[in-house]
Amino acid sequence: MENNKLKKANLNFGIGGFFALFGAIMLCIGIWTIIDGINFRSGSGQVTGVISHIEAHREHHMDGGNTTVHDVYVTYTVNGQEYEQQLGYYDSTMFAGQEIEIFYNPENPAEIKGKDGITNIILPLFGLVFLVIGLALVNNDRKKNQQMQKLMEQGSTAQGIITAINIDYNTTINHRHPLIAEVTVTDSDTGEQFLYSSDGIMEDIRHLNGRRVTVYYDPDDRSNYYVDLDTAEADDSIGNAPQIHDFR
User: Fold this and answer.
1) Which residue from 168, 188, 225, 226 puts its CA 20 to 30 A from 214's CA?
2) Would you list the domain boundaries of the chain?
3) Cβ-count burial of 214 within 10 angstroms (0-12 exposed, 13-18 middle, 19+ buried)?
4) Contact 72, 89 (CB under 8 A)
5) Sign of the CA dihedral 206, 211, 217, 223?
6) Can you give the pTM of this predicted structure?
7) Residue 113: beta bridge partners?
């Protein structure tokens, strides 16, 4: 008997967790940036500067992609002394020679910030969107697991036969496709057949083809069901189908 549970393709939970974590980080950074800017400007001096030049360069990422990054430099004068510093942000409306309002630290005029623009709002806004989407996906997966548990505790059971193992090409996790077991349940009294599909499984389950498996279902709505492939690991094989080597 196999004691290890099959590794289900919890796509919603995985993606949802990533979205929620990424969104929370973006939101926190965005809020911190806004608060830091407000605190800086509350005790700063203000002067009109000029964008002296904008440098564009490419940044390469670990996934092989790259993005164009713009460094904006401004010149300004405080107490008769001219400074040139990097502004710290960029938007597509900026150009060399453009006048721009600058806030500086009176104790260290080389420390500057610009006005809050749309770019300061985008980060926390996107973070909030990612967080909401992520939490929704995680909650959806949680509800699905609760539904599965309820069916296993309160639903009816039927024995079915795994008739095929298919690859779910619509889903990719870590560059791999989950496998789905197709199950046929035959009602011994009426002869009716009911067709079910398992959740996506990340392990190779093709050796289970032809085995008996337990299906939990709602007797009032048989479309509400759960195929427990872990029971196929424990059952004896009946009419084993030949092992399939799928090179598609």
Assistant:
1) 168
2) 12-126, 155-234
3) buried
4) yes
5) positive
6) 0.58
7) 103
Place of tokens 């400007």: 41
DSSP 90: -
Residue entry with tokens 């007797």: 219
Which residue in this structure is represented by tokens 């990422």?
61
Out of 3.40.50, 2.20.25, 2.10.220, 2.40.50, the CATH code matching 155-234 is: 2.40.50
Q: Is residue 42 within 8 Å of 24, Cβ to Cβ?
A: no
pLDDT value, residue 211: 93
Rounded Cα distance between 97 and 72, Å, is: 11
Q: Which two tokens stand for residue 220?
A: 């009032």
Q: What is the mean pLDDT of each run of 10 residues along the chain (248 residues)?
A: 52 76 91 85 90 89 78 94 90 91 92 75 89 90 87 92 92 84 90 91 89 93 91 57 46
CA torsion sign for 131, 134, 139, 145 is negative
Place of tokens 């005029």: 109
Instruction: Give the other-Cβ count within 10 Å of 2's Cβ.
Output: 9
User: Residue 57: enclosing H or E segment and its boundaries?
Assistant: strand 45-60
Q: How far is CA 105 from CA 86, 119, 188, in A?
A: 14, 22, 83
Please count the other Cβ atoms lying within 10 Å of the Cβ belonging to residue 103. 18
pLDDT given at position 2: 42
Q: Which helix (H) or strand (E) holds 142?
A: helix 118-154
